[in-house]
Amino acid sequence: MDISGLDAVLIAGWPGTLASLWQQAGRAGRRGEDALAVFIARDDPLDTYLAHHPEAIFGRSVEATVLDPENPHILGPHLCAAAQELPITREDLALFGESTEGQLAELVDRGLLRKRPRGWFWTSHERASDLADIRGAGGPPVQIVDTASGLLLGEIDEAAAHGTVHTGAVYLHRGATYLVDDLDLDEGVALVHAAEPPYSTWARDTTDISVRSVLREETWPSGASVCFGEVEVVRQVVGFLKRDVRTGSVLGEQSLEMPERTLQTRAVWWTLPREGEDRLRGEDVPLLGAAHAAEHAAIGLLPLLATCDRWDIGGVSTAVHADTGKLTVFVYDGYEGGAGFAERGHAAAREWLTATRAAIADCECEQGCPSCIQSPKCGTGNEPLSKSGALRLLDEVLGAGS
Ligand SMILES: [Zn+2]
Ligand SMILES: [Zn+2]
Q1: CB 221 within 8 A of CB 174
Q2: How far apart are CA 67 and CA 341, in angstroms?
Q3: Ligand 1 center to 57 CA (angstroms)
Q4: Is the pLDDT of residue 71 over 80?
Q5: Distance from Cα 294 to the centre of ligand 1, integer Å
Q6: Whether residue 372 sits in one domain with residue 242
Q7: Domain span including residue 323
Q8: Residue 73 in contact with residue 136, Cβ under 8 Å?
Q9: Euclidean distance between the first and final Cα of the chain, in Å?
């Protein structure tokens, strides 16, 4: 189908980058005629923000892509993809950064590239971009098998399998509904059967984060400090909720015994000064609910500044964190070694948190909803959350509250 020269284009939800927004909008319009592009906001804090702040779209230049080229988990796949196009030569090494030669040696060791006198070659018949496990993080992908037919329905990476195809999960695949009978992580297989249960499932997990090193720290006039550094994230799926498919109400909860997963990555985090915390306490602001709501909205808004998806990043919020001794909100890169998203958040922290506050304030709901502070990937079922608390907390951080 020729999709140029349409009269109107409807864009359902933020397409990820300003560049692709303009590209989609640009499909509308025949030569010399007026055209219409309509942006339809989804239930998402970033879309809420954009619907109320069109200047964030019209007043900005097309973003630079955020990538940390020195991160081996990013560099490796890029080198493979490049080598598939043309062998990488010594002269190319400077293009990819300092750690390139070590990375190439590792890729050769792993059998992904072959070194020859003229350079490094991609030797597989597969496309480099199709290699799911090329990052080397997590275990092999989990295969989802329909026990009735014996058919392989699909594959899912190991990290995602814990939350989506755990034993007892309702799994959706191409419009059909399945129940997971058993997830065997050692064998890398999830056995499912077609079913129509009257409920959906929602994994619950616990996340612990500890600070390994602080790489950057700044203190704002409000006394809040905003840090960037290396962290260790330990996540574990501990159970799941069953929710009525029609009403969303919780029908029951079941616990699971799943192994912990550890991620060494990078995070941006901010803390409140004591006086700010005392002020909030004095106003009976529920601190954990406020921090948790601010965390969700901040995760939703980071793709405005860093080219990422909210599923690429995670968060942890605590009323008192063991490493900082204070109320702390963390947002971390969901990739081993970090991916540059948290770093970008730190560099643009004031703009980011200002937009986060605006998205929450602009949302017309009373108590919080999926367009502002609720998250589709929350491991605690979106509890506790406080919308008014998040606004007061962000005021204290940004210095607008005193
Ligand atoms: Zn809302
Ligand atoms: Zn949450």
Answers
A1: no
A2: 8
A3: 21
A4: no
A5: 12
A6: yes
A7: 203-398
A8: yes
A9: 58
The dihedrals phi and psi of 273, each to the nearest 5 degrees, come to -70, 160
CB-based neighbours (< 5 A) of ligand 1, an ion: 363, 365, 369, 371-372
Chain Cα centroid distance, residue 101: 30
Confidence at 132, pLDDT banded by 50, 70, 90: very low
Please tell me the distance between residue 45's alpha carbon and the centre of ligand 1 in angstroms: 8
Cα 203 to middle of ligand 1, angstroms: 23
Distance 207 CA to ligand 1 centre (A): 25
How far is residue 182's CA from residue 11's CA, in Å, rounded to a whole number?
Answer: 39
**Can the peptide bond before residue 370 be classed as cis, meaning omega within 30 degrees of 0?**
no
Is 312 within 8 Å of 339 (Cβ atoms)? yes
Calculate what percentage of the chain has a pLDDT beyond 90. 59
Q: 224 with 300, same domain?
A: yes
How far is the centre of ligand 2, averaged over its atoms, from the C-alpha of 224 (Å)?
Answer: 22
Q: How far is the CA of 73 from the centre of ligand 1 (A)?
A: 36
* β-bridge mates for residue 121, sequence order: 114
Cα–ligand 2 centroid distance for 226 (angstroms): 20
Whether 62 shows a pLDDT value over 90: the answer reads no
Asked if residue 221 and residue 369 are part of one domain, the reply reads yes
Half-sphere exposure of 117 (CA within 13 A, CB side): 0
> Which of the ligands is closest to the CA of residue 391?
1
Q: What is the dihedral of CA 62, 64, 66, 67, to 10 degrees?
A: 140
The three-state secondary structure class of 209 is strand
Residue 86, pLDDT score: 86
Residue 402 has pLDDT above 60, yes or no: no
CB under 8 A, 24+ apart: contacts of 390-393: 390/289, 390/290, 390/291, 390/293, 390/294, 390/297, 390/360, 391/357, 391/360, 391/361, 392/280, 392/283, 392/285, 392/290, 393/272, 393/280, 393/285, 393/287, 393/290, 393/291, 393/294, 393/327
HSE (side-chain half, CA atoms, 13 Å) at 185? 18
The answer to whether residues 101 and 112 belong to one domain is: yes
52 in a domain, yes or no?
no
Number of domains present in the structure of the chain: 4
Measured distance CA(88)–CA(70) in Å, rounded: 17
pTM (2 d.p.): 0.80
Contact residues for 223 (Cβ-Cβ < 8 A; gap 6+): 272, 273, 275, 276
Ligand nearest the Cα atom of residue 368: 1
